[in-house]
Design a protein that fits this description.
The complex is a heterodimer of chains A (366) and B (380). Chain A is built from 13 helices and 16 strands. With 366 residues, chain A is α/β, with parallel strands linked by helices. Chain A has a 7-stranded parallel β-sheet with strand order 6-5-4-1-2-3-16, with helices on both faces. In chain A, a hairpin with a 5-residue loop joins strand 12 and strand 13. In chain A, helix 1 crosses helix 6. Chain B is α/β, with parallel strands linked by helices and 380 residues long. Chain B is 36% helix and 16% strand. Chain B has 17 helices and 12 strands. In chain B, the strands form 3 sheets. A 6-stranded parallel β-sheet of chain B has the order 3-2-1-4-5-6, with helices on both faces. In chain B, strands 7-8-9 form a 3-stranded antiparallel β-sheet. In chain B, a hairpin with a 6-residue loop joins strand 7 and strand 8. The mean pLDDT of chain B is 96. Classes of the chains: A alpha/beta (366), B alpha/beta (380). Chains A and B meet through helix 2, helix 5, helix 6, strand 6 and helix 7 of A and helix 2, helix 6, helix 7, helix 8 and strand 6 of B.
Chain lengths: 366, 380
């Protein structure tokens, strides 16, 4: 039995809710998506809309009728209500209606246009991402939309849980800006408590009086690791460097008596030069294996190709084949959201072609 | 009444990847008992900033914002008597959450098989860097490991430059959001089938899911700085002031034309000509001007801007909460408003603040036994 067996979700797609609908489909819900077809890149359709029934909005009344038959509506209409959902849902007490907008309903920015980029700019995340001498950077993909989509799925499931208890659905308003800003857990409270304002530091991790590197070249790519105050970790890595005859003065440091964060920058730079030489003489795979065995806390910086070919992710079944029904092309995209001791739902692994909403007969009246 | 009132959770998780999930559930009314220990402090309690700048396990603002609405009880899980007390709490719980290294719960006698014997329909949610199965199952990493492993770091930044790490532990943000969804979905499954389960949430996989559109491309995805092929113009441009910027996203030629009019560009509205004109404007004033023209734009805000944002203030995004150590701290609230079952956020607990409420009032243990176990370092 699917986890969300029998749960009907109407998604009015416009970027903000698309991942939310995709997550609910992955959990076994019957998701019908309206919109989200024009001006959307093919890869975004494939990533966010596979496993859903896709409808073209040819008939406003048909969409409004679907809203009345849904358990959950992920309403991503940003400003206007082009399907008349507010009127259609008057008296529909059973529906959990999540209304998602870029900003709060009645705040000073209500109704303003927004995109993933502009939401990221407002969240405070871009200000601290990138190099000091270059413009602020966004995160890859569309993270403001993704974060909002996950919150939409959360709100939907909260509404479903509450409906089981109180016997009725409810309206839920969700702000994309708040969803994005919530992920920036550091900058606002740092300002509140210290008055300090974070700036872009490149790949430098600044703690205490000094900064340490996070990204290191190795023989065949990059790894991430930082010289932080973790004596067992430092002892573990230096032990291997000693065996490799590459530890230099690090072999003589008493890590239990050393606070890296308080060391002069020139000392840290000297120590990091030794580590850089060690990393540069080994491959990603070798360093990763040592880290796994010895507990260094080092990670390989995977290229996207590494990720696609990862034996670990293959063993976990992350990537699944999805067929585009319009072209017949099969692509690999992330499938299951997590693993479980019970059988996961088995959603459709197809990207359907949109069919007219007026012709959809999949949801009988209840 | 909040949405999850009546839901009972025992939370063994620490730092960020688990506590952010149980915070979601606690703010929405679940009773979340956070199990922690003075013998092995939650590193979140040791994370700055601190009230008054003094390191204090009860005074971390980071911990306070990550653990709102929870109760705190102390158990030393390295003592078998502590594990016995934990089992009593598990018998009470609907959901158990942990983010220890893989295998730790089994080693202390609290593996899923044991939990199932205590409570057959229990939901155990485990969050780890790489998950509990596969060749990397034992991987121990820190907050940014998932950014490196998932391709995020490789895909962040300017073409031709080194990988770029996010400025915060983004995996500690995304993975717990997936854990929250997983737990709520598992509760729905249990309501329909009566069946509990062991959820295995990896930090790497959610980080891949949120860039699934990049992986859905035919070609191997490449980093693109701030560019987006789907827009006529998409970037960040300098404005007046030191290190001040505005993000602008114009969808088509009509929006480009309007953008050009605002900036006084007569022909060829491009990233280069826009960058020449934007320094004449204040970033917030230009935001207003472009919004009035229906063009998506926004100032690049820093931590101060965010904290003082009129939009976020209007939405009540930072809620002041009285706290014995922090005095008044402004804590970010959930981003949604449920009309019938609103969230209700209360302050984060002091270390062990609810020992009596949990052990005596809830579990029915004698106060003298609790005192003896505390003196022995078991409930500590």
């Amino acid at each position: 039995m699917n986890w969300l067996e029998g749960v009907r979700v109407l998604e009015v797609s416009d970027g903000l809710v698309d991942l939310g609908g995709r997550m609910l489909a992955e959990l076994g819900a019957d998701v019908v998506a309206v919109g989200g077809d024009t001006d959307v890149a093919p890869e975004r359709k494939l990533a966010w809309h596979h496993g859903k029934t896709r409808l073209a909005a040819d008939d406003v009344t048909a969409v409004a009728s679907l809203a009345q038959r849904a358990d959950i509506i992920l309403n991503g209409q940003r400003v206007s209500d082009r399907f008349g959902l507010a009127d259609a849902l008057a008296g529909a007490d059973n529906v959990v209606h999540i209304r998602v907008a870029p900003f709060s309903k009645s705040g000073p920015y209500a109704g303003r246009p927004a995109t993933d980029l502009t939401l990221m700019a407002l969240s405070g995340l871009m200000e601290v991402t990138g190099d000091p001498n270059r413009p602020p950077l966004r995160f890859p993909g569309e993270q403001a939309y993704a974060l909002t989509g996950i919150q939409a799925a959360t709100a939907a499931l909260l509404g479903l849980y509450a409906r089981r208890r109180i016997g009725q659905g409810q309206a839920i308003d969700l702000s994309a800006l708040q969803s994005t800003t919530l992920s920036n857990y550091r900058e606002a409270i740092m300002y509140e408590w210290t008055g300090r304002i974070g700036r872009r530091m490149g790949n430098l991790l600044v703690r205490g009086k000094s900064g340490v590197r996070q990204v290191w070249p190795c023989q065949d790519g990059h790894v991430t690791w930082s010289m932080i105050d973790n004596p067992p970790m430092m002892r573990a890595i230096v032990a291997v460097m000693v065996e490799d005859n590459a530890a230099g003065e690090l072999a003589h440091v008493d890590w239990d008596e050393t606070l890296v964060a308080d060391m002069p920058q020139e000392t840290i730079d000297r120590w990091q030069a030794i580590v850089a030489g060690f990393f540069a003489s080994h491959s990603k795979a070798r360093l990763a294996q040592w880290s796994l065995e010895k507990g260094w806390g080092l990670s390989v910086v995977n290229t996207p190709q590494d990720v696609r070919e990862s034996k670990h992710l293959k063993a976990r079944g992350l990537f699944v084949e999805v067929e585009d029904c319009q072209t017949g092309k099969v692509s690999e995209v992330p499938g299951p959201l997590f693993a479980s001791s019970v059988a996961l739902p088995q959603p459709r692994r197809t990207l359907e072609a949109p069919s007219p909403a007026s012709a959809f007969s999949g949801w009988e009246a209840r | 009444m909040s949405a999850l009132e009546g839901l009972k959770i025992v939370d063994f998780s620490w730092v960020g990847a688990g506590p952010r999930a149980t915070k979601d559930l606690a703010d929405n009314g679940a009773t979340v008992i956070k199990i922690e220990s003075r013998k092995r402090l939650d590193l979140g309690r040791l994370s700055p900033p601190f009230a008054g700048g003094v390191k204090d396990p009860d005074g971390s603002a980071f911990f306070a914002q990550t653990n709102t609405s929870k109760q705190s009880a102390t158990i030393n899980l390295s003592d078998p008597r502590g594990v016995d007390v934990a089992k009593k709490l598990i018998a009470w719980a609907d959901v158990v959450v942990e983010n220890f290294g893989p295998g730790f719960m089994d080693r202390i006698g609290l593996g899923y098989d044991v939990l199932k014997q205590i409570k057959p329909d229990v939901i155990l949610a485990s969050v780890s860097v790489a998950g509990r199965s596969g060749p990397m199952a034992g991987f121990r990493g820190y907050g940014n490991s998932a950014a490196a492993q998932s391709g995020h770091a490789a895909l962040t930044g300017w073409p031709g430059r080194d990988p770029h790490m996010p400025p915060l532990a983004y995996g500690d943000v995304v993975a717990p959001m997936f854990a929250t969804v997983a737990i709520l979905a598992a509760l729905e499954h249990r309501a329909q089938t009566g069946e509990g389960q062991h959820l295995d949430v990896s930090q790497i996989e959610p980080m891949i899911h949120v860039i699934a559109d990049l992986y859905a491309r035919d070609a191997v995805p490449k980093k693109s700085g701030n560019e987006d092929d789907g827009f006529a113009l998409h970037g960040v441009f300098p404005t007046s002031g030191d290190d001040r910027w505005i993000a602008i996203a114009a969808r088509d030629s009509l929006e480009l034309e309007r953008l050009g009019r605002v900036l006084g560009i007569e022909a060829d509205v491009s990233s280069e000509t826009v960058a020449e004109q934007t320094p004449r404007f204040d970033r917030f004033e230009l935001f207003e001007l472009l919004a009035n023209q229906g063009i998506a734009a926004a100032p690049v805000q820093d931590g101060k801007d965010v904290f003082e944002s009129p939009e976020l203030t209007s939405a009540g995004h930072f809620q002041p909460l009285d706290h014995p150590a922090l005095k008044v701290g402004k804590m970010p609230v959930p981003p949604y408003v449920l009309e019938q079952t609103p969230w209700a956020m209360t302050r984060a607990p002091l270390l062990g603040e609810h020992n009596r409420a949990v052990y005596v009032d809830l579990l029915g243990m004698a106060q003298s036994d609790v005192d003896a176990l505390a003196a022995d370092g078991v409930l500590a």
